[in-house]
Design brief:
By secondary structure, the protein is of the alpha/beta class. It has 13 helices and 8 strands. The protein has helices at about 10-25, 40-60, 60-75, 75-80, 95-100, 120-125, 170-180, 195-205, 205-210, 220-225, 230-240, 260-270, 280-295; strands at about 85-90, 110-115, 135-140, 155-160, 180-195, 245-260, 300, 310-320. β4, α7 and β5 (about 180-195) form a beta-alpha-beta unit. The radius of gyration is 20 Å and the shape is globular. It comes from Cardiocondyla obscurior.
Amino acid sequence: MYETPNINTKDEVKKSVVEKRVQRAVAATSISYQHRDSPLKLNETIDKIVMEVENYMGGGSDMQHRDALDVVQEFSYELSKMSGKCLDIGSGPGDITKDMLLPMLGENAEIVGADVSQAMVNYARKNYCDSKRLSYMVLNIETSELPADQIGKYDNALSFYCLHWCNDLRRAFENIYKLLRPNGKALTMFIGRHGGFNAYTELQQVPKYRSYLQDAHLYVPYFQRRLCTDIRGSLREMLADIGFEILHCSTREKSYKYSQQSLKDHILAINPFLKRIPEDMKSDFINHLVYKVINKNALIPFKKNVNDHVILRYDLLIAYVQKPLLTV
């Protein structure tokens, strides 16, 4: 008879994740990071990286945690049956990987968290590692040439809130296919459509921001920037063409409630352009961007009261696929 994992309810998982995030945020005072500058400069670099990672975790990840938790609960049985070597693509700071995913997998499963950011990997190794069942590495899932020692090495792959950042989504899934062993499975969840991303391309048309947002279209989710009306159908077609057996593929209409400050924090945490904007323009840019995001997809807009909230809507894509046992 199937026994559920030790953490088997949404409230328990959420409580565990929150408690451990707080504990590690308090304990994190340094990070393993190579730098050739002076000790003072090194400390400044370390502090900056830690601050950026924790700003991401605090301001930009509440929605991601909620949605990831929903998927983890929905696929809890499938996750509990996963064993062997599992790749978590886009593991970021490592909190979801260790506190949410690892407890849900089978006891014989081990996870390798993979992220394109060296800073994120360093942070995860410092704060969310497990010497027995969890390690981290740098990996670009869009690479044109996967490391030879990684091909066909994984029994399972997971990815939550990562693949919408891929410019070439097809290549990302092709690489997932290559990384899996025959009969290996992958569970992915990512944004299919979010009006807030169109704010980037609209601001690109504003003369004073144009030079800083020339590649803004690359940060719009794959199917959204291709104006696909049936994003689920488009994803199914892509996955089948690559060679996957599709066990599940769906679109989920979602919404999230923000205060004015939490919305600004969220936008700041995930904004890829802010570092390019000159300091004397950042305040106007942020305010302009927040206005555009709300204008594009708010179900309930802000009023004049500073305590008002806004509800933003978006669509998630969830795919659970398998690499056939016999592959050509």
